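Whiteboard transcription, Tuesday session. T.W. wrote the structure tokens on the left side:
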């Protein structure tokens, strides 16, 4: 196994831990205070964000879309899964194909409420063109996104897994556009979890 392959496995494992920790952020059930169900748990009580999480053994994940942006940053989207709790979790991999270290500060978006999320995928949006609606990344009770945070210091040739969780469009909507600030949009298909 080459050094690059080991680095990718380490990045996937680190991202899986980050997904689990992000899903646990903010209080639980009755402490939400806003009357909304917790986006971090589906009906089964398991974190919705861990469903289909990348694993070291799943190196040949399907590719729904690939987008390339400035600084030779590439995003590969491997899944967009609707769960029974009414959420869609988009997962994939960020790869720095450039020669400079990458920080995803601009991916957080411009909304002041998302400053606490730091360099993250908090600015991601799902667009239902047919239904003429935009779905923004969900937040925990502390206002942090239910998405990958800490996307800083991504070195050249490094890949990191990412996820973002959204409210679900209607069940009849299966085609949406995934948008991430500074990156071109990508059409993806939502599958049932």
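and on the right, the sequence the group agreed on:
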């Amino acid at each position: 196994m080459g050094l690059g392959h080991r680095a990718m496995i380490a990045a996937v494992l680190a991202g899986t831990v980050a997904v689990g920790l992000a899903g646990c952020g903010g209080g639980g059930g009755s402490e939400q205070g806003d009357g909304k169900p917790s986006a971090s748990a589906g009906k089964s009580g398991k974190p919705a964000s861990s469903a289909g999480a990348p694993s070291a053994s799943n190196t040949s994940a399907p590719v729904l879309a690939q987008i390339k942006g400035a600084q030779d940053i590439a995003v590969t989207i491997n899944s967009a899964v609707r769960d029974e709790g009414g959420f869609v979790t988009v997962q994939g991999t960020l790869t720095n194909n450039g020669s400079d270290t990458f920080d995803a500060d601009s991916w957080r978006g411009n909304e002041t409420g998302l400053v606490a999320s730091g360099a993250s995928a908090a600015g991601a949006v799902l667009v239902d063109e047919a239904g003429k609606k935009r779905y923004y990344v969900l937040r925990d009770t502390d206002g942090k996104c239910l998405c990958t945070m800490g996307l800083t210091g991504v070195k050249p040739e490094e890949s990191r897994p990412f996820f973002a969780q959204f409210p679900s469009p209607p069940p009849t909507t299966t085609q949406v556009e995934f948008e991430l600030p500074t990156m071109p949009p990508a059409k993806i298909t939502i599958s049932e979890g």
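Someone added at the bottom: The radius of gyration is 16 Å.
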